[in-house]
Amino acid sequence: MQTNMPGNILIIDDEEKLRSLLGRIIRLEGYSVKEAADLKTSRKMMEKDLPEIILCDVKLPDGNGVDFVSELKKKYPQAEVILLTAYGNIADGVQAMKNGAFDYITKGDDNEKIIPLLNRAFEKIQLVNRVARLESQFKKNYNFENILGESSMIRESVSLARKVAATDATVLLTGETGTGKEVFAQAIHNGSKRSNKPFIALNCSTLNKGLLESELFGHKEGAFTGAIKEKKGLMEEASSGTLFLDEIGEMDIGLQAKLLRVIETGEFIKVGDTKPTHSDVRIIAATNKNLLFEVESGKFREDLFYRLNAFTIVLPSLRERKSDIPMLANHFLKVYNEKINPGVESIGRDFLDALKKHDWKGNIRELKNIIERSLIVSNGRELILADLPMEFSVNDTKNSTLSAFDLASVEKLHIQRVLNHTKNNKAETARLLNIGLSTLYRKMEEYSLQ
Prior knowledge:
The protein is α/β, with parallel strands linked by helices.
């Protein structure tokens, strides 16, 4: 029996007895079934209520089922079509599959096949719907509305990205590591007319020249040892969509010439091939390097640099947009507290003040990691100064003169961490600190610790 929600099925066949018998068999499996004797009737029925699966005879009074498949898949691509024929032939079967049919079977050949076949078709429909829902959710997570920040620099970057998204222009994203370059690339793709096509990301620094060339452009069978079959490259896989090339400054200068050709002509040559392959792919590149300096030092092609530099978006470092830190920190708190520590509901003022003083060499990625780490060690309902790593506070004060207050702050943080570790067990805390219990109480009173 069908265990999932029953699917809606339309049977199109001019033989009434066969159609009725098939309908009864399918209804017993939990499916909802409608019947039509010709294509004209079926078209009217589908306009009112589109079935998920269509069982269609090949020879009908007003048309041919094989041709009807092509019409259906153009108008209703989400529907699955199974063709039925009294006299199967290979040519019809091949053409039916080319036109988009799910399968092609002979009537009465094996009635036991029809139910498993319907179940498989319905499973495919459910999978496609599930993927569509996940893609929809993914796009919601990666759009311009979800790029957080009210500072003028980030708003300017978002404004430029919105404008270029509507075009097919090549984009260069520059900024330090962790500033959100891939998030911007995905938002640009999702805001473009290519949003329903593939978005593929590749970090150019993770592969050597040979592997990167094969990964990008693909190869022919036998092109090199281990190339046992032809492989599509990402340029081909991302055709009609977007290819995001992160760390473009790490790409070998020889491959840069091939990339330039793709940008200028839409063509490339696979490894081991002699003829070009065409790809309608949009390139978004990103780097944390100064590409002009790389050009001057001979490590990056000047012509490619100017081709990429036609539309550049600079992503500001977190140091340049510290006013956005509270918003970002609270966002990461909401994202991770349910998974890590649901008891934490807010962020303390001292905690936020410390975040604002930090240097943030890892930018937003570092901030996210700090919030995750703090949630793990926190024992309260609010993230407090003591939940930050010791190195975090030391690094923030290393360039300042260590006054008595600074040293006291370090001691206070350390005592609070040990108290957190022992779940506020004073005797165990004093033992771990190697001080007397009375000394601990005195210092707790001095630092207003509870």
